[in-house]
Amino acid sequence: MYNKMINFIEKYLGWFIGSIVLTFFFWLFCVNHVSPNEIGVAYDRTNGKITTQAVGWHITAPYVKTTTISELNIPVNVAPHSSQYIRSGLKPYNKWVLLRIKPEKVESFFNQIGFQYLFVDEQTGYMTSAYFQDVRPDWLEVVEE
Q1: CB atoms within 10 A of CB 77
Q2: Is 108 in contact with 136 (CB distance < 8 Å)?
Q3: Rounded mean pLDDT, 44-62
């Protein structure tokens, strides 16, 4: 009886541990989640195609990189830098605008900046610089000035 149990453990323990390791790496490299108020973006490195993902769980190939972009309005301070006030003698002020990336133009956004993982601060920086351009890009939406 004891020998049968040892043989069973020796036979199937490797398969059990291997399946746990395989499941972990599958989850790590092939599964991603898009939360509400976010736009999921997937970049296929084999053909350079950028696709958007809906809210929920997604299974992708290991060679597909994914990231998310906030769909919420982001407040951005567009007042001139305080050093400009010191030189001119004017009193500083704050001017805030609400900006967001149009969900239907996410591909255009990544075609302009290149695909990368974005944090909220980086997304705000790109939106602020786009706000000050002479011709604003089609992916930027000014919600409130």
Answers
A1: 10
A2: no
A3: 90
- The average pLDDT across 74-87 equals 67
pLDDT tens-digit series, residues 97-140: 888 888 888 888 888 887 776 666 777 888 888 888 878 888 88
For residues 106 and 108, give the distance between their C-alpha atoms in angstroms, rounded to a whole number: 5
Backbone φ, ψ for residue 133 (5° rounding)? -70, 150
What is the CA 58 to chain-centroid distance, rounded? 14
**With contact defined as beta carbons under 8 Å apart, do 68 and 34 qualify?**
yes
- Hey, where are the domains in the chain? 2-144
Residue type (1 letter), 50: I
> Residue for token digits 């610089």?
129
